Amino acid sequence: MVKKALGWIGKTDKEVLKKMFQYKLKQDYQRPSHLDIFAQQAICISKRSTCLFYEVGAVIFYNHTHFLSSGYNGASMGDVDPRYEGCARVVNGKLQEGKGLCRGSHAEINAISNLTTNTMGLKDVSMMVTLHPCYSCAKQIVNKYIKKVYYIWDYGREDFVTDYLNKLGVEVIKYTSPFLERWINLNGYDPIGMRSK
Tell me, what's the pLDDT at 2? Predict the structure, then answer.
């Protein structure tokens, strides 16, 4: 016999019901999935970023349930905080993109560096990242036996990276869910600073 959710409510004292989480007493309530939680973790860890242009977070996990590591983008340990010294890519007041001046290490690389476990023997190793990986990060993702990359927002550059990862056996999935969308809207998260313009 299949149990019906909330079938017990009619037999429960109303004063007792008032003390419970009311949103869990709605018929349409669904618990967040493990992917929703990893997406939230990636977004939260991205707030540690020291970059003035991008906030990126990454979480590595396996079997969709076991957390392995996380990382965010920003200046290397011991290097300067751009809030005090300014962005290294801004030279004489102008942004110098694509010239290799950035002090930052990417979130995916930092998450890989923070691993305390060898991923070679693990099956179903995945990464959740707030922005679609770049080519440099993609190469390291492949080298760490990560087989799935979930991303929340498009990076808008290097469109060939998905094809590169797919060719090397890594599935790339844009992740969204009703739970995550509500949570993002509630918190006003914006990975590239577009809302501040």
Answer: 66
